[in-house]
Design the sequence.
């Protein structure tokens, strides 16, 4: 299937002015990540909070869903109205497999629900290093399976899902789609992947070299997250960690991948889109010039971030 990268935004190589303002406000210096523990970072508020998109007025409900080992996972459901009956959208938050939670991505899930009309299921999967690979992936899959098996009770119109997520959540979404294709326990009908991690086995490509530091997500941060998530180096070449390395992408559903020009993850996201297309998957990939990683969390004050969210909503409405 033919594939062509689409580009939106300003001229290449020029940082968006609103993104530059955000980067200028970030604190400088501090300890190396080698000197801190995950909880040291988790206890601090995210610097993206002042840039979050305004909270959309949707109905929310928190439930618990049992994982395969009996652990009770928190899941937040977003409906446009309390009695809405709509198709299901899984959302898996980013955070290098180590950080973030339901609250850090609440505004994004509200926005997607309100603008698309989908019922959104945001999953509080277990984080590394307390729960290393494959626990978080299994959690994500188990909740998706639960949603498909209880679609009547959950008031969703289909037992077929769209999976979505940002960064590590984009990675989890891609892996859940691969697992569902293999197991045939449920069907994924679409993937919405915001700047996904697709290859944790290497950090040496062009975007990693060009944007290793100074653009919010750093090479050091990615190494920090990967090293906490994986058990051994062999995990990083496992397609359930690095879906770009899968030898069988054929049969995956229609996909939208978004990438940011100034992001270490840009090249692997675009490489995944290309490989999906080569495997016969209907895929669209859009690079947003001038933007950095986490732009959907900055869309409250970054105009192009709102454009990117609107583009993803248009994709959802096409189903």
Sequence:
């Amino acid at each position: 299937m033919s594939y062509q990268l689409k580009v939106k935004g300003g001229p290449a190589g020029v940082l968006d002015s609103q993104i530059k303002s955000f980067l200028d406000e970030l604190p400088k210096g501090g300890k190396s990540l080698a000197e801190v523990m995950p909880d040291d970072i988790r206890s601090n508020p995210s610097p993206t909070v002042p840039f979050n998109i305004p909270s959309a007025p949707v109905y929310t409900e928190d439930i618990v869903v049992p994982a395969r080992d009996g652990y009770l996972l928190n899941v937040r459901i977003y409906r446009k109205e309390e009695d809405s009956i709509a198709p299901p959208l899984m959302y898996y938050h980013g955070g290098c497999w180590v950080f973030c939670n339901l609250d850090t991505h609440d505004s994004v899930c509200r926005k997607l629900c309100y603008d698309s009309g989908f019922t959104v299921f945001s999953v509080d999967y277990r984080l590394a290093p307390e729960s290393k690979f494959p626990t978080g992936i299994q959690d994500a899959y188990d909740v998706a399976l639960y949603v498909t098996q209880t679609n009547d009770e959950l008031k969703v119109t289909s037992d077929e899902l769209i999976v979505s997520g940002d960064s590590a959540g984009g990675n989890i979404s891609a892996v859940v789609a691969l697992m569902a294709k293999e197991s045939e326990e449920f069907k994924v009908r679409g993937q919405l992947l915001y700047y996904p991690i697709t290859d944790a086995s290497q950090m040496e490509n062009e975007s990693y070299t060009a944007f290793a530091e100074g653009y919010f997500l750093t090479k050091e941060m990615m190494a920090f997250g990967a090293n906490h998530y994986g058990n051994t180096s062999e995990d990083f070449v496992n397609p359930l960690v690095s879906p770009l390395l899968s030898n069988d992408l054929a049969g995956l559903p229609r996909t939208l991948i978004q990438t940011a020009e100034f992001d270490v993850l840009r090249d692997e996201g675009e490489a995944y889109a290309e490989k999906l297309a080569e495997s016969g998957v209907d895929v669209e990939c859009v690079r947003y010039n001038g933007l950095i990683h986490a732009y959907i969390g900055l869309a409250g004050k970054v105009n192009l971030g709102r454009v990117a969210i609107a583009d993803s909503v248009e994709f959802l409405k096409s189903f």
Summary: Residues 168-183 form the longest helix (16 residues).
